Write a sequence for this structure.
């Protein structure tokens, strides 16, 4: 069968022939129609993600959409290594396949799944967002952040504050539910002052896709704001601005603060799948959307090289 194949650590995928998967006990053979070229798919395939298997050669793709043996459309996650989502067929544990709502197309489902899982689980499972609370999304101009604004509004957030480095992209988020925009700057002191003003008014949940300087200043600002009447939940999701930050110990003592992460390993698999199912139903009903583009499986090398994450690339099969 044809597939997008990575043959070693750090290598880009090539289009070629790969062995046919065979379903074992409690597994499904899925005929793939679409799989997103997500950051997770890329870093796992290249061996730089903490959940990488280290088994090569392998097929790219941590999830996707396709048809099961009975012809029903399903979303699937975590194909059995070395198989992946970007192939004509893959093999997946039956428990990791979810029926798709009729109103949600294959490309849309494949493109929305990873960022949807990210923000849905972060807001519902980790932060346990309550209706009427204020959410600050740090790094909201990418696909995941844009979707997070829509999901936060759907889940009942009263106010949504978004941050980013590009003013036009930030302003566009107002149409998706954002109430306030904050332009990130390189001036850490000015950034901290702005964040402190927001925390003094009340921020319940921070959804952080960046880490780095802005996260450091966010946490310090929360502590200096001294708003002891609010339980602050800081959920770390991505690290696009840097993998580490200095964290003064006073930050953890000054206010009621829960500092947590959301990702593979932080939520049990059964709840991840349940959350994705809930997200798909909401996406079909509410019309959640992010910018998507498609590329055929045969063009995986070009798609991989040109991918920037926005718009999100969905690889189509067949």
């Amino acid at each position: 069968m044809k597939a997008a194949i990575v043959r070693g650590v750090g290598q880009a995928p090539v289009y070629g022939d790969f062995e046919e998967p065979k379903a074992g006990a409690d597994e499904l053979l899925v005929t793939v129609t679409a799989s997103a070229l997500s950051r997770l798919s890329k870093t796992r395939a290249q061996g730089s993600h903490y959940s990488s298997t280290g088994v090569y050669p392998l097929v790219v793709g941590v999830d996707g959409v396709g048809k099961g043996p009975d012809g029903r459309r399903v979303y699937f996650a975590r194909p059995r290594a070395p198989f992946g989502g970007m192939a004509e067929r893959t093999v997946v544990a039956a428990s990791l396949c979810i029926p798709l709502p009729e109103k949600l197309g294959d490309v849309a489902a494949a493109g929305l799944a990873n960022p949807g899982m990210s923000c849905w689980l972060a807001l519902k499972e980790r932060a346990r967002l309550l209706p009427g609370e204020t959410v600050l999304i740090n790094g909201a101009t990418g696909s995941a952040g844009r979707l997070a604004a829509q999901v936060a509004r759907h889940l009942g957030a009263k106010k949504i504050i978004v941050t980013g480095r590009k003013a036009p992209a930030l302003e566009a988020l107002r149409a998706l539910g954002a109430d306030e925009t904050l332009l990130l700057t390189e001036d850490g002191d000015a950034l901290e002052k702005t964040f402190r003003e927001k925390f003094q008014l009340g921020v319940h949940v921070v959804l952080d896709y960046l880490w780095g300087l802005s996260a450091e200043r966010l946490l310090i600002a929360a502590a200096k704001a001294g708003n002891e009447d609010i339980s602050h939940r800081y959920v770390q999701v991505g690290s696009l601005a840097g993998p580490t930050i200095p964290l003064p110990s006073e930050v953890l003592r000054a206010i009621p603060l829960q500092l947590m992460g959301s990702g593979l390993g932080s939520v049990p698999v059964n709840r991840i799948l349940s959350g994705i199912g809930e997200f798909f139903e909401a996406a079909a009903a509410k019309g959640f959307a992010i910018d998507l583009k498609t590329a055929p499986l045969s063009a995986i090398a070009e798609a991989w090289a040109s991918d920037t994450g926005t718009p999100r690339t969905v690889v189509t099969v067949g």
